[in-house]
Amino acid sequence: MSQDAESDRLKEFTEFRQRMNDRILGHDNQVVKRFFALDTQTYKPGALDVKTKELLGLVASMVLRCDDCISYHVAQCKEAGVNRDEFFEAFSVGLVVGGSIVIPHLRRAVDFLDRIEGEGAHAAAPGHDHS
């Protein structure tokens, strides 16, 4: 895949996510709005820093096998300063906890990380709301 096509995929992922979050939050449903707000609050710094929380989110997403969530947390981890060795240690935790069924998701996570690093920019959209 060409660099332009990879960049387009990252941009498409980010734009789709933001567009749909805006659409969902535009509906007057307090449960949805409160859940998204809770999600945002969860990843703010507290006793654990943002980097640690995003790594936890990444591992949980791998174990739950949610590719959109994995991609989101890879981008957020990158933005929080996670380096490649730290990523692979987190990937190893997800793999050990989740088992071999996580391997396809690990492949996509590493591919997404490679594309982010190849682009030289952070692919994360503003706000959290990865749900």
Features:
disordered C terminus; mainly alpha; 6 helices; 131 residues
Structure description:
With about 130 residues, the chain is mainly alpha-helical. Helices cover about 75% and strands about 0% of the residues. It contains 6 helices and no strands. Helix 1 crosses helix 6, helix 3 (about 50-65) packs antiparallel against helix 4 and helix 3 runs parallel beside helix 5 (about 85-100). The longest helix is centred in the N-terminal third of the chain and has 24 residues, at about 5-25. It starts with a helix and ends in a 12-residue tail after the last helix. Mean pLDDT is about 90; it is low at about 120-130.
Largest sheet entry: none
Shape designation: globular
Class from secondary-structure proportions: mainly alpha
Number of helices: 6
Low-confidence residue ranges: 121-131
Radius of gyration: 15 Å
Helix/strand layout:
Blueprint: H1 3-26, H2 30-42, H3 50-64, H4 67-79, H5 84-98, H6 103-119
Helix pairs in contact: 1-6, 3-4, 3-5, 4-6
Compose a concise summary of this entry.
By secondary structure, the protein is an all-alpha fold. It has helices spanning 3-26, 30-42, 50-64, 67-79, 84-98, 103-119. The protein is built from six helices and no strands.
